[in-house]
């Protein structure tokens, strides 16, 4: 059993509570008079929306890959246990008859940590086993949560089980039945909140998820659920909420604020559409934004039809921040409008502000910490179990600028699995195809130590729950794929030396903040090396030179079987060819588990068995130096 201290019961920095904790977290109090004033016929009040998003299975401030308390260069803490402490502090501070509160989440809750993975794949939740995130979120007391795209990673049956364990609804107005086009999850919930004596305000909470699910989780949702655009569905359901008498409409949207799509034009609906929602759909008052993993403390977007401002707030991710959104409201009595028509009494928003609070200033909530402790300890024992040994240390630190053995290992395991499977169940023609494999450097901090290798080491290397497929591609497809992947690099002149930051993470139209590491794929051969240079002196699209398989030039009409993950094969990242190529293998085996099983079965990882230098960075044909 694992014997180190596994409970991050007290943060490195967290010693405060109550009002002092809020002040340290960056909280700015709104004077009580701002919501209490108002004439007898025009009562005022305030609705506070507390929001989280992209929790990704984080309950504790714990890094399961490092087996240590979480930390990063910005001194962030993570986990719902800490957020709950902030939530309780705000709830305690925001009291009074004219104050109402809601607590919402904007999606991506059940994927992202070994804790989440364990209760989806190793010991799946059922009637007797509750998901740790359900336990924690129920203790928080959410009013509703939007579906995130990662909610679908483990299939709809497990998602439905998770849904049944929650004390609040999962909302997805744009997760619809392919036949009826009606939502298969609740599209919204209506809350009747007390504001003052004998007065109530009706608040509609609309949940919207990401259209990209149709691509990213195609295997789990195809033919079962469709995902139209956020704007398109909001134009249906916001008017429905208003017809049902909602004074205020709040959206929890698992879609970033700044309009963009990682899948290009593969879908007619943008991935990140929260600003479009605010601009194009009248009568939305505020949007809790998710998916993009950025911090937006307070953003106002003007609706193009009404001219009214819509409040947007995104509280970073993993529980690093808590959103506090304040809507000042005023009661409007029944009156005659400009056209003489009777206007019923209603509440309206007269002002809106938001802020985000930093969870690294507080201790974890003891109730959540206690409730999830057993599950946490079980997972720590699991991830620290030894499955084999490595003959030397293997690191991914330089995987973005050179061919390293630890990425070669991923490609080797994937390609070997594909070759064996096709030989057993494929056609003779497919079995004769040379096998290639793609892999990306998901985590530069990943390392296999010399000596014992644990589940945690593998999980730190392959951090996503992708499954393995193989597709039939041509030599021309391979060249196009590599050219697309090489967009990851910035164009430079000369041979350096350069820093990694000077040559990697190039900004593109689809990645304005820089191409992420997970969208840089290298391609390797199994029985013979696939070798090529990436010439950074050339513009994107003209960088791959010397492409050869087994020392022979790769011609356009050559055919290969190429191992890919389901994210790529379903169109993730917009890579060419693979999403439309013939699938020759698809057993829906998770790649991380495949690697764990390989190490368990073989016992020893020896780079001499699989590693070779297949690609390099050059400038006008000369190797470059990257420090």
TrEMBL record:
Residue ranges annotated for the Calcineurin-like phosphoesterase domain, each copy included: 48-294
SUPFAM superfamilies per record: 5'-nucleotidase (syn. UDP-sugar hydrolase), C-terminal domain, Metallo-dependent phosphatases
Hydrolase in keyword set: yes
GO-annotated biological processes: nucleotide catabolic process
Entry keywords, A to Z: Hydrolase, Nucleotide-binding, Signal
Positions of the 5'-Nucleotidase C-terminal domain: 386-579
Gene Ontology terms: cellular component: outer membrane-bounded periplasmic space
Molecular functions (GO terms): hydrolase activity, acting on ester bonds; metal ion binding; nucleotide binding
Position of the signal peptide: 1-34
UniProt cross-references to PROSITE patterns, sorted A to Z: 5_NUCLEOTIDASE_2, TAT
Family in the record: Belongs to the 5'-nucleotidase family.
Listed name of the protein: 5'-nucleotidase C-terminal domain-containing protein
